[in-house]
Amino acid sequence: MTDRHPLGLRPTKIVAVHVNYRSRAAERGRTPPVPSYFLKPPSTVSWDGADLVRPQGCRRMIYEGEIAAVLGKRTRGVTPEDALDHVAGFVAANDAGVLDLREVDRGSNLRSKGQDGFTPLGSVMIGATHNDPAELVLRTYVNGELRQDTTGDEMIFPIARLVADLSRMMTLEPGDVILTGTPAGSDVVHPGDVVEVELAGTGRLRNRIVAADEPLAEYGAMPVATRNTPLAPSTMELLRSVGTATLSARLRARGIGGHVLAGLRPSRPDLRLVGFARTLRYLPLREDVFARLGGPGNAQKRAVDSLEPGEVLVIDSRTEHGAGTIGDILALAAIQRGAAGIVTDGGLRDSAAVAALDLPTYYGATHPAVLGTRHVPMDMDLPVACGGALVNPGDVLVGDADGVVVIPRDLVDDIATGAAAQEDEERFIAERVRAGDALHGLYPMNEARRAEYQAWRAKGGKS
Fold it and tell me: Is the preceding peptide bond at 444 cis, omega within 30 degrees of 0?
């Protein structure tokens, strides 16, 4: 299990803190009043150089650089003042996970963070008695680019308090590990990426992301990302032929009212949009946060670079029209990635150039300014609000000259079939209206008119 770890670490338990850095709390919009925790299995322990395997069907694997506190003696009922005397030392850690399985865990993180190898721990430990936890320097790099940079002084709950808190109710054994939380800057990584976590004085913990060779057996809940499996060709054909107005009517009939991405206009009304949602979220500009998150490797660039064929980049801009949220270069990059389109409820830069591209693009307004005047590119692959509608990763987006609707993945086949049937009925109704028939009893059809419609269909749509 963990025999190969250079430090011989064999914890009986790994306890991880949910939110414990002020910058992380600011990202989440909430500062916890007391620590909260989850458990990771001991089999998640791995080491420097070990691969982190992303399960098939997952696309939202994350890194979380952390300081791990390793217990040195059996600990029960200690005070914060005495707690560090029970800690052997600190090592670099990566609290890895896959967000694609988080929603089925109901807060436990068992499947999303419990896979074998998902807790790499550094090969060098620094002692707790000679190192002030508040002065520990933690940095995380992805492909050599600095993504997280903080000190232990930013912790909301100091390590001594975490040890004391946990020891109130459980016995901590020698070798047990406490993952003390991650600062802002955790994000999605992909196969081929290299994550390095550096705890100053211990070197770097280096792990490469690789894709699993075998599919995940379907004995239980599957990754949310598997909803992006291709639609049946017949469903795609229907979605490309029926109007968004008809799809809207079918969604309302199924009780889904919040399905229209309101206030958006197409750059090319002649192009049809059909694809799976890939989400990106912007938050209001705050200069210190933008300085940390708005650099060359920001969430906007990563979202575009990781688009897969058939996906629609959906940008939550809070309907803020005072800055551009995407422009022609990134739109061109999306085309090269095989994207099906772009949807933003914010501003569009380089609108004429974007309109010249064969890429369905919907936007709230045109604006020449860059996003850094109003927005911080915060995160991706999470539920977002766009045009007042909730869009989940993997939802199906359909757009035409009338606008854009969002369809839950599990309803799309039924909605497409129902919309096609409705449009067939409406062709009959339109034919009768052109012939001079009154609307009463025709729109909507009464029983007599429906019998006429069935006879019309039997003749191949001819009166």
Answer: yes
At residue 136, the 3 state secondary structure works out as coil
Short-list 460, 402, 459, 463, CA closest to 429: 463
103 and 196 share one domain: yes
Residues 262 and 205 grouped into a single domain: no
Structure tokens, 71: 């217990």
Using alpha carbons, select from 86, 85, 87, 83 the residue that is nearest to residue 70: 87
Other beta carbons within 10 Å of 32: 14
Residues 6+ apart with CB under 8 A from 273: 266, 312, 340, 341, 343, 360, 362, 397, 398, 399, 400, 404
Average pLDDT in the chain: 92
d(CA 446, CA 178): 69
Q: Are residues 159 and 286 in the same domain?
A: no
> End-to-end CA distance of the chain, in Å?
74
* Identity of residue 323: A
Q: What residues does 178 pair with on adjacent strands?
A: 15, 69
The least confident of 78-92, 277-291, 443-457 is 443-457
Is residue 247 very low, low, confident or very high in pLDDT (cuts 50, 70, 90)? Answer: very high
Q: What is the pLDDT of residue 463?
A: 58
Beta bridge partners of 179: 16, 68
On whether both 190 and 303 belong to a single domain, the answer is no
DSSP H helical ranges for 122-221: 159-167
CATH code for position 356: 3.50.30.40
Say if residue 274 is in the same domain as residue 201: no
What does the longest C-alpha to C-alpha distance in the chain come to? 92
Predicted structure pTM score: 0.63
